Amino acid sequence: MAQIDYFFATLSPYCYLAEQRLEAVAAKHGATINYKPFDIIAGFGRTGGQSPKDRHISRIEYRAQELPRQAKKLGLKFNLKPAHWPTNGAPAAYAFIAAQNAGGGDLGALAHAIFRAVWAEEEDIAQDDVIRACLTEAGFDPALADSGMLEGAETYARNLEEAVERGVFGAPFYIVGDQKFWGQDRIEDLDLHLAGEL
């Protein structure tokens, strides 16, 4: 059975665009997803990238066109300038890690709930009540928002180190064996790879 190591950032609009399709591809091929939330802004600084606000105006303008186009194509509600972005994505990542360790719910649904809260629902994922609502929606104990913070922080930091070591420079980023796929627009390639066609 294939394993997809999935490096994602709770604040990434591209992860929001990708999430449900990733779950569908994994289910189609009987693959497992090993979720690895990490600090993408710190990752940019260590792999030659820049945070969105520091990019050249050409890249900023292209992003402003591309994200709404892709969301429309996928039939997803999307706000290019959400009320609570940027915010601190770490608390949601820590809660995700606590849920991952606890089990009992749907991690894909939790990831999507977090992304959707930012990019479609004008919610601040740094707030405990928002995180608890996401946990509940995905079938997890909402009290996980208040537990495992130290372990979550340690895992989050380890995931960043692993990401840098393994050549991850953006999100979403998928690794299967020695094959790497970057971006919400590479899910079709991931699908083909898992089918043995690419």
Task: Please supply descriptive tags for the structure shown above.
about 200 residues; Glutaredoxin; 4-stranded mixed beta sheet; 8 helices
Summarize the structure in words.
Helix 1 packs antiparallel against helix 5 (107-119), helix 1 packs parallel to helix 8 (187-194) and helix 4 crosses helix 7 (149-165). This protein is globular. With 198 residues, it is an alpha+beta fold. It contains eight helices and four strands, in the order βαβααααααββα. The protein has one domain: Glutaredoxin, CATH 3.40.30.10.
Radius of gyration: 16 Å
Weakly predicted, low-confidence segments = none
N/C terminus separation = 17 Å
Q: What topology, given as strand order, has the largest sheet?
A: 2-1-3-4
Percent of sequence in beta strands:
5-15%
Supply the CATH superfamily name.
Glutaredoxin
Q: What's the total number of strands?
A: 4
- Helix fraction, binned, reads 40-55%
Task: Explain the layout of strands and helices.
Elements: E1 3-8, H1 13-29, E2 32-37, H2 40-47, H3 57-74, H4 90-102, H5 107-119, H6 128-137, H7 149-165, E3 173-176, E4 179-182, H8 187-194
Parallel strand pairs: 1-2
Antiparallel strand pairs: 1-3, 3-4
Helix pairs in contact: 1-5, 1-8, 4-5, 4-7, 5-6
